[in-house]
Design brief:
82 residues; 0% strand; mainly alpha; Non-ribosomal Peptide Synthetase Peptidyl Carrier Protein, Chain A
Length: 82
C-alpha cells in the first residue's frame, strides 16, 4: 500500500470513528479539506494516526507552519518529508 493510499484509508477511518460522513463523492487532489467531512479536530486526529502508521509527523519537521487547504496539498506535505 502506498503512503497516499494509507492517508486515504486513515481519512475514512477517522470519519467512521467520529460518525462523520464524507461530504464529497471521492477524495481527489482538489478536495477542499474543510469541506470533506473532517473538521480541524478530525485533521489533528488524522495527523496523529498517520504519525503512528507512517512514523512521521511532517508538520513538526516544517520550518514554517502551513495548513493545507486541499487534499493534494496535504499529501504533498507528506511527500516532501518521506
Amino acid at each position: 500500500m502506498s503512503y497516499r493510499e494509507k492517508i486515504i484509508e486513515s481519512f475514512h477511518e477517522i470519519l467512521e470513528m467520529n460518525s462523520l460522513d464524507l461530504l464529497v463523492d471521492e477524495i481527489e487532489d482538489d478536495t477542499i479539506l474543510l469541506e470533506s467531512g473532517l473538521d480541524s479536530l478530525g485533521f489533528a486526529i488524522l495527523v496523529a494516526q498517520l504519525e503512528m502508521d507512517l512514523d512521521l509527523d511532517p508538520f513538526v519537521l516544517m520550518g514554517e507552519p502551513v495548513y493545507p487547504h486541499t487534499f493534494g496539498e496535504f499529501v504533498a506535505i507528506y511527500d516532501k518529508h518521506l
